[in-house]
Amino acid sequence: MAKEMALIDPQKVPAFPVYTLQISEDRQRLTLDGAPVPVLDEEDFIEAGKNAVIAKLAAHHFGAVRVRAIDASTNSSWDMIISADGEVLDLSAQQEAEQAKIERAQRTKKRWFIAGASTLAVLALGGLGTAVVIANQPAATAPAYTPQGVGATLPAAPPPHHEATAAWSHPTLADATVNLISPDRLLTADPEGTVTGRNPSTGQPVWRGDKAPEDLASIHQGTWCVSSSLSEPLKR
User: What does pTM read for this prediction?
Assistant: First the structure.
């Protein structure tokens, strides 16, 4: 009787490490985390890459790992999970569904914002009494942020006296760096190509910007002071 393979539960697979399989631009070479992977004459790149990942899983005693496959010849990439039993879970559909959910939430939030602004404009015409009613409404509170990836296995051995698991973790853009621009601000490049300022202790996003560079070390924090008098020089 054939052995039934267990289904992969993405929630139980740590965010790190993430193995990287890359097909060269000329489609002549395959690498796993930078190391060459031999490809047999009748074997395709995907099968050879999967076998290389399984071998590395066995060497590191992992049950399953996240893998990012990059095809340099088409400038495309996709994410998957591969188990030590050879099971492969393509995460593309899941990521597309999550992105669609985010876009729907953003559209809904925008519609509520427009409707709320219109309502306030109408209520403002009602006079002072209406304004007092609005002011007495309980203040809205934002939900508490929950750190993601708590306890994830670190992709590399940490320095002495440090834990071997992460306090928090977030997916980042492939090959991108991070930059601690101040004691209370860490920059990361998200997979969608945005640069995000985070709280180093919790990973909580503080602000985001478009088109993150791969080398975040090029971003610096500056402070400006504006003089109160035009006759005084500006100070920095």
Answer: 0.42
